[in-house]
Amino acid sequence: MKTSDKKRSFLSRKAQLRISNGLLTTLTWVLIAIIMIPILFMLLNSFRSRTDITSATAPLFPQIWHPENYTNMWKAFKFGPLFLNSMIVVGSTTVIATLIASMAGFALARFRFPGADVYSLAVSGTQLIPGTLFFIPLYLTFLWIKNNLGIPLVGDNLGAIVLYIGFYTPISIWILRGFFASIPVDLEEQAMVDGSTRFGAFFKISLPLAMPGIVSTAIYIFMTAWNELFFGYTLGVKTVPVGIRAFIQGAAGTQLRYDYMAAAAVVVTIPITIMFFALQKQFISGLTAGAVKS
Amino acid sequence: MTTIPMKRKSTSFLNKFRRNRIAYVFIAPAVLFMLLVHIIPTIQAFYMSFLDLNTRTLLEYLRAPFVGLAHYKNIIIGLTTGTGDALIKGLGQALTNSLWFTFWVQGGTLLISLVLALLLNRNFKGRGVARTLVLLPWVVPTFAVGIIFQFIWLQQGGLANRIFYDWLHLVDHPISWLIGPNTRAALIIPAIWNGLPFSTIMLLSALQIVPLDLFEAAAIDGANAWHKFRYITFNYLKPVIFTTTMFGVIFNFFGFGPYNIAVSLFSSDNLGKYNNLLTIAIVRQTFNNQLFGYGAAASVLVMIVALIFVGLWYLSFRSALTSE
Fold it and tell me: CATH 1.10.3720.10 in chain A, residues?
């Protein structure tokens, strides 16, 4: 009691508040700086030479910058084809999975159809299946189909696309159902009174209105599919993560090309960073809307 | 008397079905993919866990020799006595590692993101920029997270040793982060770093719906900052903490995020005794050693553990969620 009285005589309540506010703001920026450091260090390393990266005495900021790390990496990793494959696999997955999930999310939000409860339970239930559990039989089935029917589900983009669509659809349905539920049903009914079919009303009215949710779902799928390493690696698909892993493991016995790895890490991060920050507002509101409401 | 309502019910069911026909068309593609990728393979996995599916019988597919509960028996013996089939010996260790890994990553992520969310919810200059920057680790693909932290942990030239040894002199010799017990921290820290943004924005969005007049009322009643947090803020955060923690635990326990980070961080999927996580161990035995039947059985057990966790989690927090 006494000490606090003393303090109050030194500093007014207002001044105390201002100081603690200032301290908290400083703490915020310190934490953000710590969070940023790994990314800044990656950027820095992508312009340093291989020997500088692994030297304890080399200055942190290079005396000679090495932008050629990027072109060398591109050639060494054969990055062009990897990038193209990733774009094909991740692009088609994103488009198809978003469309399928929009339709299912819409159905769950609009119709109390028999089986709706079981279906939505099954949708969330898929998240409790370990990846290894469904992937082991799926991989063997893909192999069997390839050997017996000749459809290239292993060693080709097709298998990964099928798997990714199925893998990312359930969580997308979850996000999108909340979105469609928040759109007033009157507008669709109006369109149907005006002679639209149910499909027409869905495509003309509901889809455009749910765009923020659809965009956030698409970004989410793109980000996670762009990330995906294990399924792609085992299915023998030559996407970016698989190519980088193969390169790193191939070199593990000798000397790792840290300079190339840094450049590659930067290059794979750029496309999603651009997409993410261009559409960030929609993405965040889309993803958090469902979570807070439910 | 009894048949009439029955009949009415069945016709109304049919009616309901017919009226909602279009809904089934809308869910059809999603159901098809769910069957293809989740449901049929899961049923097959249960069956395969009873088969001796390995390199030799691979091409026999579902006609591989039936061995009953042999895989389960081997795994349980291996887990309880530490003996058994040499190939699957590491599973008990992997289970322990995964439980600790999940605990530290989830606990660390929750605590730090709670602090971040509370800080970012205050009014200060540049708040928008700060809220954007905090999302950055999320954008980095998981396999690139491993590469980034490889640079940080390098014994010579790594950032961690530059900070702790060269600049702050906290240690008397450079730490070898990527060898021995230190590798635990070397994997947990990037996993927390990568998971922070998601947890933070979820908590932040929940904080924004806390009604401010509650704080004013509490202030009049003489509540201090801790009481306000404990009895007002925390109540609004509970549902989000409940769901993000549940999914966080599941993804850290059997998801592929930690796998991606670990494989690129250590440049190999042979991670030694400190970081041999469950997913990594199962994947190595299943695909590198081609023990598919064993892998299916181990995965079934992992799913059972996850289901038990979710059930217990739900049961113990449901009342807390609904009563307040």
Answer: 69-293
Question: ipTM value of the model?
Answer: 0.86
Strand partners, B66: B51
Test B38 with A126 for CB contact under 8 angstroms. yes
Dump strand ranges (E) for chain A.
Answer: none
Residue of A132, A158, A219, A294 to mutate for B, most B C-beta atoms under 10 A: A132
Res. B184: pLDDT tops 70: yes
What residues of B are in contact with residue A116 (Cβ under 8 Å)?
23
CB atoms within 10 A of CB B47: 13
Mutate to test the interface with A, among B25, B38, B112 (most CBs of A within 10 A): B38
CA-to-CA dists, residue A112 to A105, A262, A293, B14, B100, angstroms: 12, 52, 20, 13, 43
d(Cα A197, Cα B98) in Å, to the nearest integer?
52
B147 CB neighbours in chain A (<8 A) are 42, 244, 248, 261-262, 264-265
Which structural domain, as residue segments, surrounds residue B12? 1-41
The structural domain count of chain B equals 2
Q: What is the predicted pLDDT for the residue at B324? A: 42
Which residues from B are below 8 Å from A37, CB to CB?
159
CATH of the domain at B248: 1.10.3720.10
Report the CATH architecture of A69-293: Orthogonal Bundle (1.10)
The model's pLDDT over A232-255, given as tens digits with 9 standing for 90+, comes to 999 999 999 999 888 887 765 557
Q: Are residue B188 and residue B278 in the same domain, yes or no? A: yes
Q: What pLDDT is attached to residue B88?
A: 65
